[in-house]
Amino acid sequence: MRKIAHVIRKEFLQLKRDPRLLPVLFVTPVLQLLLMGYAANLDVRDIPTVVCDLDGTSASRGLVAEFFNSGYFSLKAQVPDTWGVDRCLDDGEASMAIVVGRGFADNLAAGEPARVQLLVDGSESQSATIGASYASMILSGHAQRIMLERLERLKPFGIRPVRVKPEVRVWYNPELKSRNFMVPGVLGLILMIMTMMLTAMAVVREKEAGTMEQLIVTPIRPLELITGKLLPFLIIGTIDVCLVLAVATLLFRVPLRGSVFLLFGMSLVFMLTTLGLGLFISTISRTQQQAMMTTVFFMMPMMLLSGFVFPIENMPKLFQAITFVIPLRYYFVIIRGIFLKGVGIPELWDQGLALLVFGLAILTLSVLRFRKKVG
Amino acid sequence: MNPKRVPVFYCLGAVVKKEFRQIGRDMRTLIFLVVMPGFLLLMFGFALNFDVKHVPLAVCDEDGSAASREFIGNFTHTEYFDLKYELSDPREIDRLLGEEKVRVALVIPRGFGADLAAGRGPAVQVLVDGANASSASTAAGAIGTIVQNDSVRMTTRLLRDRGLKSFGMPLASETRIWYNPELRSANFLVPGLMAFILMVILVISTAFSIVREKERGTMEQIMVSPIEPGELIVGKTVPYLIISLLSSHLVLLLGWVLFGVAIKGNYLLLLLTMTLFLIGGLGQGLLISTITRTQQVAFQLAILSTFLPTFILSGFVFPIRNMPPVIQAFTYLVPAKYFLVALRSIILKGAGIGAFWDQILCLAAFAVIMLGVSTLRMKRGKR
After folding, report:
1. Does B22 touch chain A (CB under 8 A)?
2. At B176, is the pLDDT very low, low, confident or very high (cuts 50, 70, 90)?
3. Domains and CATH numbers, chain A
4. Do A122 and B318 touch (CB under 8 A)?
5. What value of ipTM does the predicted structure carry?
6. Residues of chain A predicted below pLDDT 70
7. Whose CA is closest to B23, among B202, B198, B206, B201?
8. pTM score, two decimals?
């Protein structure tokens, strides 16, 4: 135990020696969460929209007004012809266009289909999908209303409209704020980046500086050395968790419905996996440069395939299988579950177990690799 | 001889040659730099998409009539929803939503069919897991549209059964998606992934170039040589620029061959934009290298300044216009933002320089500032 304490002290001394390191360790996580938490927002509101009303009647204006009353669209320009629509979309001035065909009102009155065209800029396909789905909801709502008005006239004949009223209830996040989903995600990403980055350098730095030989000839055992090297980072990681949790709940007001202790416990287990991965990278790299490249090589797929923004269920089967070896995947389910759904151990034990198994496996692997090198 | 008299290109050439030799010695790094962007694009291009389709659905049909089954069919016959569970007890929905087994649940109350026939307008309950707000709102939009269209269709059928002239659908709407007609995620992802992957690789490829010499003590040797700081910075940039031009063309080629993202616009314009972006990214790495003293801190700054900022602030996934004004101001510091706008214009829209000259200007300014400040920092160190 005393030997481990010595290694820990040495690591902390080394961390203290570079004055630029401390702000990096404690200020940047908070700063990043602040910036990214506000920025990572997929709420689609005020989609810039251009209107080309070729009919210009009260019926067409009524339809157009419905779009802008919904709050999803904001009027950027009104153009007299479709050329203007082309220009607005090309310049990126608007990302959606509503074109009401000539004779819209006449067709409605005659019971003929009245023409409306929606043009959506698909180059930002995420918001385009959402925008198009809002638009089609508004259009079908409008169509239904017209239908009902017509049926009103048939009431004396005993015909009543056939309709189903959907009562949509949104659980866990009733205002559909994407921030509530994104902030816990950003928190997980920051935690992964910070802890992996620190440990990836831990062993390889000593190799490059040539101090590894000195450590090896001391009576310290590989396991003790590694424990001593990892514990400081675990402590730093835990402090970071406290800091970012405070920002997430106090500033971003993400509801924390589950147990804080469970969240801490699971975060510790999660850090086992990231520290283990960092250590593993450190043992397979010769120089710090290689360690950095390898870290990036691991971190990018972990970030994008973890379900942070891109839903795992939409991935091809092969990639869905790959996501099972990404610890962040489990941590996201845990952290979002505890934050938003207020679920506990009965729902999350399997995710936690997966993290634990992964963490222990990668740590064992690193210690073995390390030992082989020493021997 | 006055050391200042040594011809410019002689020193520059020497630095470039030395860098190349050093890169060549570490094969793992070289392979990473050339192949990794292409490999990552390959992986992400196939894996990622944003489509809200195949949302797992649970149905609890308490009515069990022909009408309720027909109503459920509206949901299961689209590709938006995958029917995963048919429940007899609505209380099971709690558990399924909590464990993320389903995202949407439908409850059809007893008497649905009778109410529908009598024109009483029965209600159905739709429960949506709102945790992922964006896919939840797309799903909710799809549900609303499906239900409303169903009502219109049933009314039309009723009228026809009574021998009345059917009204037909009152509106004929047509939605056209421009620039990306099939709303293919690849068209949207490939430019974004290019900007993201390249930016990270660029910065990390130069982030160590100077600080490593400082840490190893070889910096002093360079300092006493007749090399000017500017030459050193340019000499360190050129080899990586050549490598990254190679790797970015590999990425473009993969995007075209595998994902069908062809370049609609002018290739030379693309090359210009890309080169400026590459220099800017490499310059950012060099700047980090000049202001740090240890590789460890340089590594951390390189990762922290590229990973999340490029992913989140560049407009790749999260629309910039949704961000609060203060955060929008920060996005101007992210070169990938300019590159992404230009890239989408050239590749997807085939637009001319008129549509994005300002982006090119910003990229150029970023490159000049990064290299300039690095040179100044080096000069101060030399004195």
Report:
1. no
2. low
3. 2-41+177-374 (no CATH), 47-157 (3.40.1710.10)
4. no
5. 0.81
6. 123-126, 128, 155-163, 372-375
7. B206
8. 0.82
